[in-house]
Design brief:
The protein has helices at about 35-50, 65-75, 95-110, 130-140, 195-205, 210-215, 250-265, 270-275; strands at about 1-5, 10, 15-20, 25, 30-35, 55-60, 80-85, 115-120, 140-155, 160-165, 170-175, 180-185, 205-210. It is built from 8 helices and 13 strands. The protein folds into 2 domains: about 1-220, Rossmann fold (3-Layer(aba) Sandwich); about 240-275, no CATH class. The longest helix has 18 residues, at about 95-110. Pfam families: ETF. FixA and FixB form a heterodimer. This is Protein FixA.
Amino acid sequence: MHIVVCIKQVPDSAQIRIHPVTNTIMRQGVPAIINPYDLFSLEEALRLKDRFGGRVTVLTMGPPMAEASLRKALSFGATHAVLLTDRKFAGSDTLATSYALTSAIRKLHEEEPVDMVFCGKQTIDGDTAQVGPGIATRMNMQQLTYVAKIEDVNLESREITVHRRSEGGVQVLKSQLPAMITMLEGSNTMRFGTMDDMFRAARTPLMNWNKDTCVDDESKVGLKGSPTVVSKVFVPKPRAQKAKMVTAEGGSPALAAAAVDMLFTTYPKLATDLAG
């Protein structure tokens, strides 16, 4: 079994800065971490490796400093790591990013057929949840998103059964492999790396790929290949108005009535709008 896990090195959300001209995230000088949502997918991939054996390749696109995140993933138990880095990739939106990552996955597939691709549900910087589905579409893979549990994997019949969280409850889905899977937060707990894996992570050579290694069309990556335009990025201003405390005797019905009375008193036009 060959599993590819796409991870992303993201800036610590508490110290994010925005470039005033390009409206992109400034990563220089900001502490970087593995996107927390990606860790749930990495752990699930490692559990499948523990169960069936095989290879887990972690893949990331980013600057050279993203090597630290790949080595962290190796210390958890991943077997191979690929860093996709090139100045031409800078400024890629989700469309360009999914194209670059898909190109790398196809090259990995040529070396050893890929059975599953795991991605985080979303990232804490872009927060779009688009890259995983974009990879699935480009790879013509079955798409299983918001997965809370992998119920069963049958390698002989090439089938996977998962529990998918939806608005109406939980869907139990059976799909064919290969498949792209995004795991929900809380679906598992990330393991601690063993000393052996930590030493292995420190000395394992990474595969460093650039645009010439796997990308066929340079116009589809970076700012040139990114149709998304960020018109403005700003920090919301804090409200000057403070919250009001509603109190009433008589339990919940009286409290609800007091809250409604306060709303109509504060916003007189509300009653007219509701009546109309």
